[in-house]
Write a structure and sequence with these properties.
2 copies of one chain form a homodimer. Chain A is elongated, with a radius of gyration of 23 Å. Chain A is α+β, with helices and mostly antiparallel strands. The two termini of chain A are 34 Å apart. Chain A is 38% helix and 24% strand. In chain A, strands 1, 2, 3, 6, 7, 8, 15, 16 and 17 form a 9-stranded mixed sheet that branches. A 4-stranded antiparallel sheet of chain A has the order 4-5-19-18, with no helix packed on it. The first copy, chain A, has 2 domains: 292 residues, 3-Layer(aba) Sandwich (Aminopeptidase); 120 residues, Alpha-Beta Plaits. At the A-B interface, α8, β11, β12 and β13 of A face β10, α8, β11, β12 and β13 of B.
Chain lengths: 423, 423
């Protein structure tokens, strides 16, 4: 997930703080160094290879909970890039270490392996000029490839960081994955107590700086009823009618726009045969906000709507074979959190964005960074550069026009070096 | 499909007419004749063979649209029973002629070859006492075997009918088959202009007399929209909200109960991920009535509701990435029709049921007989005798206790002879 949250961004822009002088100076020193310039020249010189990596990664299926093939490919890529302690952990995350010169806290730079697209989705990348089209190409294949480009650039420029840098490919960032990869990493992973800063590179926009983690509540609502023959049992309650009523009521809600609150009915299923009144029908619902209080209010209303819909169906039709009931199964609960605007990580990252000529857009989103944010570990989510759109749709695209692509990539590299320190 | 429609049956029973004297007399004359008694004795004497035929037919797979193996076996059986002009037509129906003594209209007695069960279903018949268990054994393997028993009984008793009798095994009676076999027979078959009466033997109950063909219109409605990220694209149209609105409106319809009109939203699907606004959502809809006019009215209203739901969604939310549209895919279209209670065919069949000691249950259903009924060709659906249950389930069973089985079989034989006339 990489989209900038427009309203939060607008709000943030309106109250934008100047980046403090010290981080600006630190970053300027890095960006103006001969080594950094060599690194950026390498990003440019190897841009075709990076594009080839984006294409290769995109075309390896990584549906939710089925990221193993892409994980294994990425593991091999990390090894080929000379990282140490390359491994796939118990949850399926891939990682490898680039040793620094000191013993400082670890800096993690991460991208997610998984896509929202189910098995069987055509992932063939289609190219039109500098545009590449394919599901998942922006979210988050490009980031995975860009992290590899950073490794080559750092090596070519002979740059050593003070902190160790861990390159991480996570599973389960999207949807029902419920941040399972990054949660495991922070709850049970072997590096969990060493992490000083965490970057999630998720999506494209190099000006985007996510420092607020949008919380979400997700449910599968299953309406159950007696079921029966569509003709013989006509007139009995239909759980699908109750479900439809709930969706209609839910979509009547006009949530506040400030703080932004959103909802969606996203996946439905149910029924067995066209000539049978179904005995069950379900839908999945997504509710989000950066504001925990607004989110809780929406959740309460949602639950009341579901109950009322079941009752309305039982009142509208016969319950002689049984009534409609609704069961609510939690399928997602992402913590809200934030890294303060005044923190060194946010300040340095903002400085890196500015140093490359962009205007930082401070924003809120739901990404792997939610997990460390909720634990108080400094974390931000940044873009991989270039432009793109239509993430989570089959029309997803990126533009890899080299000049803008490399400039965008340079932001993350500068931010990483600012966080990890350079000798 | 052979299930009696309980409500229609109860209603019919309440207003049951006495069977007129003339058909009663005709049937009594047949049933009391020495030849008929010989025929029934043959049914009894050969009952074990009939059971063996039921088992053999049941164990030959005949999934929807894949009835060829069973058709070929049945063709060979019809030839072995001495029928003339045995053939498999272009649609896959099997048939053979038993010549009569005159030139009268043809009488067709039919059973369907297809089952509801997909390829790979275990069709092994399990026997417990007089009970046989296997998918499709009641619906409609027993009928296919009983028709063969009739041929042997007629031959043994030396009975010649006035009308030619055509024994027919149809394809595509169930579900998505949409009566394709019997429709072909009546629309393009070589006998289509010669048919004076049509029996469909479908299911078990020897008291059941289907003289009303419930018509159905079935659609898959696919709502499509742009799709997008549940948070980033919040506010755009959601095809699922449109679908839900359509279901809610559809379920506001209060159709007449006389003639009975029913509808159902039965199977739904759509969406790819909990955090994506779906780009498509669909539902399947079933509408039925024995009254063609009422069914057409409902269908018109249904279509208007779907269009209005798409438009309402486009008015309620943003179409900046695209609008919601609905596509309607016909998946079933069974004609409605009926054969009047006062017709000679219904009166004689009722008399045959009574003559064998059962109380006729006049009922409405959707069977192969719908096709001739819709064309005004006299048609009824009757049972093959014995008892059974759980049709369309893997627990389907019949009881072949010989006394009751033969008594039930005798009903159809008497009805056939009454319709075809005996020298």
């Amino acid at each position: 997930m990489f989209r900038r949250l427009t309203l939060a961004a607008a709000l943030a822009a309106a109250i934008a703080l100047p980046v403090s002088a010290a981080p600006k100076d630190e970053v300027a020193q890095i960006v103006e160094s001969a080594a950094f310039k060599t690194a950026v020249q390498t990003l440019a010189a190897e841009h075709d290879r990076t594009v080839a990596d984006i294409v290769a990664i995109t075309q390896i299926p990584a549906p939710p909970f089925k990221e193993a093939a892409r994980a294994e490919a990425y593991r091999a890529m990390l090894e080929a890039h000379g990282l140490q302690d390359v491994e796939i952990d118990a949850e399926g995350n891939v990682m490898g270490l680039r040793k620094g010169t000191g013993d400082g806290p670890l800096v993690v730079i991460s991208a997610h392996l998984d896509t929202v697209f189910p098995e069987g989705t055509d992932l063939t990348v289609r190219r039109e000029g500098t545009r590449l089209y394919a599901p998942g190409i922006a979210d988050d294949s490009r980031s995975l490839a860009v992290l590899l480009a950073y490794l080559r650039a750092l090596d070519a420029a002979g740059i050593r960081t003070r902190s160790d840098v861990l390159v991480l490919g996570t599973v389960g960032e999207e949807g029902a994955g419920d941040l399972r990869g990054v949660r495991h990493f922070f709850e049970k992973g072997k590096y969990k107590d060493r992490i000083g800063a965490f970057f999630s590179m998720d999506g494209i926009d190099p000006a985007n700086l996510v420092h607020v983690g949008v919380g979400s509540k997700r449910y599968r609502a299953v309406f159950k009823g007696p079921g029966g023959h569509s003709y013989g049992a006509f007139g009995i309650v239909n759980p699908m009618a109750a479900l439809a009523g709930a969706i209609v009521e839910f979509y009547e809600i006009r949530p506040p726009t400030r703080p932004k609150v959103t909802y969606s009915a996203s996946v439905i299923g149910g029924g067995t045969s066209v000539n049978a009144i179904p005995d069950a029908a379900y839908a999945e619902f997504d509710m989000r906000s950066a504001d925990a209080g607004e989110l809780a209010k929406l959740e309460t209303r949602f639950k009341a709507i579901l109950e009322a819909a079941a009752q309305a169906e039982n009142a509208a039709r016969s319950t002689r074979f049984g009534a409609v009931e609704v069961e609510l199964i939690p399928i997602g609960d992402r913590p809200a959190g934030s890294t303060p605007r005044t923190s060194p990580l946010v300040a340095r990252t903002a400085a890196a964005i500015e140093a490359l000529g962009y205007r930082p857009v401070f924003s809120a989103s739901s990404t792997d960074a939610n997990a460390p944010m909720a634990l108080g570990v400094p974390a931000v989510t940044i873009g991989s550069g270039g432009s793109g759109g239509r993430a989570h749709s089959l029309q997803e695209w990126i533009d890899v026009e080299p000049v803008e692509s490399v400039r965008g990539m340079s932001v993350g590299l500068a931010a990483l070096l600012a966080a990890a320190g350079v000798e």
